[in-house]
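Hi all, long-time lurker, first post. I run a small reading group and we've been trying to get comfortable going from sequence to structure in the token notation. Rather than ask abstract questions, I figured I'd post a concrete chain and ask someone more experienced to write out its structure so we can walk through it together at our next meeting. Sequence below, copied exactly:
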Amino acid sequence: MNIYISADLEGIAGVVARDQLGGTSENYRRARKLMTDEVNAAALGAIDAGADEVVVNDSHASMTNILIEDLHEEVRLISGQPKALSMMAGICSAYDMAFLIGYHARQGERGTLSHTYSSTTIGQFKFNGQVVGELGLSALIAGYFGVPIGLVSGDDAVCSEGKELLGDSVKLAAVKKNLAHRAAESLGPLQAGRLIREQARQAVSAKESAKPLILKSPATLEITFLNRGMAEEASLMPGAEIVSGSTVKFTHPDTREVIAGLEVMVTMAMSIPSDI
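-- Answer (accepted) --
Happy to help. Here is the structure in token form:
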């Protein structure tokens, strides 16, 4: 039994503010430790239920947040960037299940630190007409390889998003209750860890009921950028076109190519300032 973990930072218990997300502050140092501990809790739950291998991909910002020196000895770490498939780098059909730890709600929705992919670039993603955030994007990438999402952890908003998208089979660990965009009522680290570990154990134990999220082919991606200049830059990618305002569309019969196209277009758009 092989388990893959994608770990973000905004959904970790106690994380509510910008200075906890990067930089040199004491708050960021503490947030990295909290993130590492929640990853360990998920890994331990999987191991409790019989997992043989656990690999975690550091999926936040620089993707060098997890403290490898504090990581459980049986967990391997993927870190750094750029890397193909970004937040789901390393996922493949060899994994039996994936966990999304420390995730957050999508842009414009209720949720602590909610955004989609890049808060300075992206307004919205749509796949085959359905709006998705980072949770949905990660689930679709895993689904391409036939891997179901067994566990989602974060605030209550992202857990609701996960249940709506993935159904009743996904296990949920709401480690904080959203109060505002930069406020939450969080469980303490020990309680959050116990909840994640138990839900991870249950997810692996109920693996037969988990189903991958499959994107029907041909797959159509629509990205709404924050300004027209970003859309114009992204539309320079072969096969992409502006369909209205700042929304760019790209269609391809291979889901993997659509995901690759997303990464390329977002990278191109990031070269355009968000304040013009």
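A couple of things your group might point at:
The chain is about 30% helix and 25% strand.
The CA atoms of residues 73 and 146 lie 28 Å apart.
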